[in-house]
Amino acid sequence: MRIDVIAALPDIVRGPIQHSIVGRAQDKGAVEIEVHDLREFAEGKHRQIDDYPFGGGAGMVLKPEPIFASIDAIKDAHGEPDEVIFLTPDGEPFDQPMANRLSMAEHLVLLAGHYKGVDQRVRDELVTLEVSIGDYVLSGGELPALVLIDAVARLQPGVLGDASSALTDSFQDGLLDAPVYTRPAEYRGLRVPPVLRSGNHAAITEWRDTVRIEKTRRRRPDLLEDPAAETG
Ligand code: ADE
């Protein structure tokens, strides 16, 4: 898949994508990521990308022209993307089902805003999906764009070493993960649960299932709620 990122602060995105799973996904050709500097699409001596809000108020607003120009250039070079995603705290909550769905796209464009926001005409005319990574406000969309890229890149075929490991992640089946242990079997008097060393795979699976349900009930009871039960 191809991912184009348009950012006011592109270096925040360029560093981290070289490393770990996302770096490997690019090395393997599973994901091609290009990070575009919004300022390079701005006109004038100062290449201004933001301006004061009409009607007053705090903070600067990203101007429409550089964003329209950047997305036009990406569409001219690579065709119509599956989604143009704007990262914003008032977007749709990002979760594993959304990551799964987006991982099947061939081409995503991510727009990472900064300052107070982006001119609404960009959102009305260009953006097809608005995404929030959580109920807190960050200084810009660059870190949320990295979060989305990581979640989507690791789902590309051949990227994870163990082909089944994405399937056993927390949330893939709606439950949190069971605890994991490695050697030594005893450390500072703390023992690994004996069942994990028993070699009894049926017992291990049963233990993991029980612990996962218990942990989910304690930490994230919302994940166990039956959506069908939520009637008017
Ligand atoms: N930009 C600033 N905060 C954000 C958030 N929580 N999610 C997505 N984009 C953002």
List the helices and strands and how they pair.
Blueprint (H helix, E strand, L loop, with lengths): L1 E6 L3 H4 L5 H8 L4 E6 L12 E2 L9 E2 L1 H15 L4 E11 L2 H8 L3 E6 L4 E2 L1 H6 L3 E4 L9 H12 L32 E2 L2 E2 L9 H19 L13
Parallel strand pairs: 1-2, 1-6, 4-7, 5-6, 5-8
Antiparallel strand pairs: 3-4, 9-10
Helix pairs in contact: 4-6
The structure holds adenine.
Describe this structure in words.
Homodimer. It comes from Longibacter salinarum. Specifically methylates guanosine-37 in various tRNAs. This protein is α/β, with parallel strands linked by helices and 232 residues long. The protein has 2 domains: 2-155, SPOUT methyltransferase, trefoil knot domain (Alpha/beta knot, 3-Layer(aba) Sandwich); 170-223, Trp Operon Repressor, Chain A (Orthogonal Bundle). It is built from 7 helices and 10 strands. It has helices spanning 11-14, 20-27, 64-78, 96-103, 120-125, 142-153, 201-219, and strands at 2-7, 32-37, 50-51, 61-62, 83-93, 107-112, 117-118, 129-132, 186-187, 190-191. The strands form 3 sheets. A 5-stranded parallel β-sheet has the order 2-1-6-5-8, sandwiched between helices. Helix 4 crosses helix 6 (142-153). The radius of gyration is 22 Å and the shape is elongated.
Which CATH C-level class of the largest domain is it? Alpha Beta
Topology as a string of helices (H) and strands (E): EHHEEEHEHEEHEHEEH
CATH topology of the largest domain: Alpha/beta knot
> With helices defined by DSSP (H or I, 4 residues minimum), what is the helix count?
7
- What structural class should be given to the helix and strand makeup? alpha/beta
Rounded Rg = 22 Å
- Estimated helix fraction: 25-40%
Q: Average pLDDT value?
A: 94
